[in-house]
Amino acid sequence: MANNTITLPSYTLTPRPTLIPGVSDPLLQLLAPVVAYWVFSLFFHVLDTYDWCTEYRLHTPAELLKRNHVTRYEVVRDVVVQQIIQTAFGLFLAHFDPVETVGREDYDVAVWAQRLRLAQSYIPSALALLGVDALALSNKVAEYPQFASVLAGGIYPTPTAAAPWESFVAKAIYWVAIPFVQFFVAILLVDTWQYFLHRAMHMNKFLYTTLHSRHHRLYVPYAFGALYNHPVEGFMLDTFGTGLAYLLTGMTVRQGMWFFTCSTIKTVDDHCGYAFPWDPVQHITSNNAAYHDIHHQSWGIKTNFSQPFFTFWDKFLNTAWTGGDVSSRYQRDRISAQKKVDAGTTPQQPSVVNSPEIDVDKAKQQALSSQRQVLDDSVNGGVRILEEEAREEQSVKTSTRRSTRRRTSGFDPKALSDRVAGSLHGRSHAILHADGAH
């Protein structure tokens, strides 16, 4: 076709220079998420240690002390094991990957410009179907030469060179649109993979008790517990899932580095235990720390399976928490945990306090299903947890508010409980998404 003659430039391929001298890009791709995990976790650990931003905490220090079933040492140990496995597997696969090259970029941009030129050749025929003479119309707008050339079907004074607008759009497609689509599709793939595998591990008793129950020893999640999993689950859910999305979308090594790192940061943020109104990571998508924290409670463990980015599968398959505002449940958990600290006792199994029934049929079904899941996990508490919940629930409902409370480690639990409960109440729609309208 005469008007589709943009000349494609020649090119020479050379190995891509490393982003950091002395560190190969495949190795950097594997190390960047690990570094991001611990740096980002350290930030939240500092907030925990110095009691900063307490008004945004979902749980109190007393709850971390009394409700979790695993020590911080065990969490760090298992996370490090998972990251070692993840890095070793990535290095193994990278050994078989071809060396990435550069030098073809201008050629690929020209190919997209050529495709745009070809698309313009169909404009006169399309306008003719509407009874419009494209050539006559282009003559009327001759003072706008590029627009006139488009209407004429891509006829330009210099047909072998791309027009300025064609070059601009072609570069935008190649450098922005395609990477964005790759990144977005990879996110959808990871969300889909993790939702169904995560849900299966809750629906299948063997998978839950053998693998996934380990992660749910953290009834009060914190940042560096995000990847606290059974090694087999960690490999299947995170390493294999994100790796599959990376391969299927055809990302470059550097694109993969950003994708893995962003996924890691999002996962840490979902377990950080803080509901910040100004945290962009918690507001870019409808999934956030408060949304996922419901899943870690005994009354919500069979809901809110979506992770780490969007919640569309929970909405579509009707597994999102529908029990309404959860601030009263959280407040009772805080009070119960603080009572244990005040009493100076450490029960054999940390407790999880349930709230009164919510008069919504589906919410009751979700809570009952979640409690059955807890009962199945006899290794980590089972019946004892629910028995303690019933006793403490009754105790909290019948006890009167204390005007003062003994301070623990310079920390006023009563004031914190009131502040956080009020904060959560005020943000229940925007942050907790607990009304089911995410």
UniProtKB/TrEMBL annotation:
The chain crosses the membrane at residues 27-47, 172-197. Residues 345-354 have a biased composition (Polar residues). It is found in: Membrane. The keyword Transmembrane helix applies. Keywords: Membrane, Transmembrane, Transmembrane helix. Residues 337-358, 388-423 are annotated as: Disordered. Residues 399-408 have a biased composition (Basic residues). It holds the Pfam family FA_hydroxylase. GO terms for cellular component: membrane. Residues 183-319 form the Fatty acid hydroxylase domain. Its main location: membrane. InterPro entries: Fatty_acid_hydroxylase (IPR006694), Sterol_Desaturase_Related (IPR050307). One of its GO terms (molecular function) is oxidoreductase activity. GO terms for biological process: lipid biosynthetic process. PANTHER family: STEROL DESATURASE. This is Fatty acid hydroxylase domain-containing protein. The lineage of its organism: Eukaryota, Fungi, Dikarya, Ascomycota, Pezizomycotina.
